[in-house]
């Protein structure tokens, strides 16, 4: 009964639309299609009034996480700044690339040959924390829970991205262990497939040395990356690190 009522109502509604003639329908179709094409082309291509502006937007747009619209906003913002402010901005970028150094011991980004952490007498030089990049060093330092030194690999083993062990600072880590003063290596790598692959590879390479190999406790969500973990969780996971052998079984 209810079904029939609904059918009648539907037919009524369709019947009400009968005033739309085939010609009108065709016109509506062309109207909507042209609007769709116009909006698509507007958002896909930007028409610049200046080649220099276009060039700057293109360069900013190459940065990770910056789309063309954001790039345009940044460039227009820079244009509004004073000459001095823009010179400071470009100078900082030029200096960064020309003068930045990588610590020759741990490969962390530094201003000098040996970074502050490696040259500090207050740090425990018998414990090395192995991390992917400088962002992880910053995240762990922010916890104030770790007193050892670091070793920055410069990435993770990722066959999909064509990154193999030879592309990372693994040989340099082995060299540090050969010196014989290291007692513990903490593998603080992301809980991702690449992180786990790298941990397993490092374990195979380091297990014959007389050092304790541990991984940070995985209170961190699986698939989580270190830089996004809050300081308390990251600090606790370093403090409660576990020997790696137990994980391998
Ligand atoms: Zn260093």
TrEMBL record:
<keyword id="KW-1133">Transmembrane helix</keyword>
<dbReference type="InterPro" id="IPR015967">
    <property type="entry name" value="Rcmb_RecR_Znf"/>
</dbReference>
<comment type="similarity">
    <text>Belongs to the RecR family.</text>
</comment>
<keyword id="KW-0234">DNA repair</keyword>
<dbReference type="Pfam" id="PF02132">
    <property type="entry name" value="RecR_ZnF"/>
</dbReference>
<dbReference type="GO" id="GO:0006310">
    <property type="term" value="P:DNA recombination"/>
</dbReference>
<feature type="domain" description="Toprim">
    <location>
        <begin position="126"/>
        <end position="221"/>
    </location>
</feature>
<dbReference type="Pfam" id="PF21175">
    <property type="entry name" value="RecR_C"/>
</dbReference>
<keyword id="KW-0862">Zinc</keyword>
<dbReference type="InterPro" id="IPR000093">
    <property type="entry name" value="DNA_Rcmb_RecR"/>
</dbReference>
<protein>
    <recommendedName>
        <fullName>Recombination protein RecR</fullName>
    </recommendedName>
</protein>
<dbReference type="GO" id="GO:0003677">
    <property type="term" value="F:DNA binding"/>
</dbReference>
<keyword id="KW-0233">DNA recombination</keyword>
<feature type="transmembrane region" description="Helical">
    <location>
        <begin position="26"/>
        <end position="43"/>
    </location>
</feature>
<dbReference type="GO" id="GO:0006281">
    <property type="term" value="P:DNA repair"/>
</dbReference>
<keyword id="KW-0227">DNA damage</keyword>
<dbReference type="InterPro" id="IPR023627">
    <property type="entry name" value="Rcmb_RecR"/>
</dbReference>
<dbReference type="Pfam" id="PF13662">
    <property type="entry name" value="Toprim_4"/>
</dbReference>
<keyword id="KW-0472">Membrane</keyword>
<keyword id="KW-0479">Metal-binding</keyword>
<keyword id="KW-0812">Transmembrane</keyword>
<dbReference type="Pfam" id="PF21176">
    <property type="entry name" value="RecR_HhH"/>
</dbReference>
<comment type="function">
    <text>May play a role in DNA repair. It seems to be involved in an RecBC-independent recombinational process of DNA repair. It may act with RecF and RecO.</text>
</comment>
<dbReference type="InterPro" id="IPR034137">
    <property type="entry name" value="TOPRIM_RecR"/>
</dbReference>
<feature type="zinc finger region" description="C4-type">
    <location>
        <begin position="103"/>
        <end position="118"/>
    </location>
</feature>
<keyword id="KW-0863">Zinc-finger</keyword>
<dbReference type="GO" id="GO:0008270">
    <property type="term" value="F:zinc ion binding"/>
</dbReference>
<dbReference type="InterPro" id="IPR006171">
    <property type="entry name" value="TOPRIM_dom"/>
</dbReference>
């Amino acid at each position: 009964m209810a079904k029939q009522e609904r059918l009648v109502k539907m037919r009524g509604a369709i019947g009400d639309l009968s005033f739309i003639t085939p010609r009108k329908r065709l016109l509506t179709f062309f109207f909507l299609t042209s609007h769709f094409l116009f909006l698509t082309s507007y958002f896909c291509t930007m028409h610049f009034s200046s080649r220099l502006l276009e060039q700057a937007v293109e360069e900013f747009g190459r940065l990770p996480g910056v789309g063309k619209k954001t790039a345009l906003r940044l460039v227009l913002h820079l244009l509004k700044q004073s000459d001095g402010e823009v010179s400071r901005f470009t100078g900082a970028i030029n200096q960064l690339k020309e003068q930045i150094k990588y610590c020759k011991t741990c490969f962390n980004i530094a201003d000098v040959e040996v970074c502050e952490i490696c040259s500090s007498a207050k740090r425990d030089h018998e414990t090395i924390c192995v991390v992917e990049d400088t962002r992880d060093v910053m995240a762990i330092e922010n916890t104030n829970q770790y007193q050892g030194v670091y070793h920055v690999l410069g990435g993770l083993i990722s066959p999909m991205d064509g990154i193999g062990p030879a592309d990372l600072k693994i040989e340099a880590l082995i060299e540090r262990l050969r010196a014989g003063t290291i007692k513990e290596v903490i593998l603080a790598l992301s809980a991702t497939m690449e992180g786990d692959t790298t941990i397993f590879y490092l374990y195979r390479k380091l297990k014959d040395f007389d050092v304790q190999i541990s991984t940070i406790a995985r209170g961190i969500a699986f698939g989580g990356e270190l830089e996004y973990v809050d300081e308390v969780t990251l600090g606790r996971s370093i403090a409660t690190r576990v020997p790696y052998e137990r994980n391998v079984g």
